[in-house]
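Step 1: inspect the first sequence and its tokens.
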Amino acid sequence: MQERYDLGCQIEGGKQPSQLSGDAAVVAFQTVRELLINVVKHAGVKEAHVYVTQRENVVVIHVEDHGKGFVPDELDLPRSHGGGFGLFSIRERLSLLGGSLAINSSPGKGTSAQVVIPVSITDSAGALQN
């Protein structure tokens, strides 16, 4: 992000999260990338923060900036009225994994996005537990 978009990213983590499955890892990467690109396009700042933690059986990723902010209700605009497919697409992909995306923002106060992705855990016998 620094090289390509001139966006510095502070990345922090708590407890080392469990490894995500292949599909979940790809969705996590694509989601964080899309959120950071939105910071570049809309926030008007040169830095963002990414926090990755695990709670019970989910990985939680927060992407935050201290930029312009916006009114989240405006995200639901149809494409013909200036809405886009980026966040819609993220929500759809996360939904297929049982995950979610929540956005908190207000004009002049920056934006915080919370991504929740379930972690599949196998027991010692190899049985899948959720």
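Step 2: inspect the second sequence and its tokens, then contrast the two.
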Amino acid sequence: MSSKVSAIIITQNEAESLQRCLEGLQWCDEIVIVDSESRDETVELARKYTDKIFIEAFKGFGPQKQSAVEKTSNEWVLSIDADEEVTPLLAEEIASVLEQKSPIKGFLIPRKNLYGSKWIRFGGQYPDYNLRLFSKSHGEFTRQMIHERIIVSGEVAKLSHPLIHYAYKDLSTTMQKMNRYTNLAAEEKWRQGERVTFPAPLLHLITHFLKDYFLRFGFLDGHEGFIVTWIKSLSAYFKYAKLLEFQKMGRVD
């Protein structure tokens, strides 16, 4: 099996963070971008790094990423988000493990999640393993709108060097992102037939906060740790609150 790597990225209005991501992928043999009709300079910036750019209406994170996979020309695929960065150490590790020609079909990569410039180490934020590198003959994305996963048929191993994830730029940006993601998550649950009762949103908020802030020691990350824990808890609240709202409105797909 060839050790060449195709990196895939899906984008929508990512001009602010995309260049850092693309600079960290210069070692890849190919970069494929599927853009969801960006209104900023995302596409123009991407053209400086790759000519494999495809404009498609957003179909959900899972379908969009699988569409990118299907446009790659190499067997190994590295899925990365525009707000993430591959370090030189991680790039070297990937090259090393692929050269070994082992039977492994997928690799879990840890992530260092940042709030601003602070590394959030607790509250379930590290090592935050995600399956991101896989053989496309043995793996594919689930078709979920959000919280998509790569399913691999075969052995999976862990890498040691992390992706850098600029997860929480600031409070305002994070709240906007949370609103979009909770909309998608509520829609996904509605389509799957999940229904909730009135106390569910508050119960999810409380349990998420207690688990991440106390049981997973989120308080050790100081002020930023509190903000991250609170945002994650609010995300859980709004996801179920929006689902409850769909129920009350008698929403029809």
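Step 3: confirm your contrast with the notes below.
Residues 6 and 30 are 5 Å apart (CA to CA). The mean pLDDT is 97.
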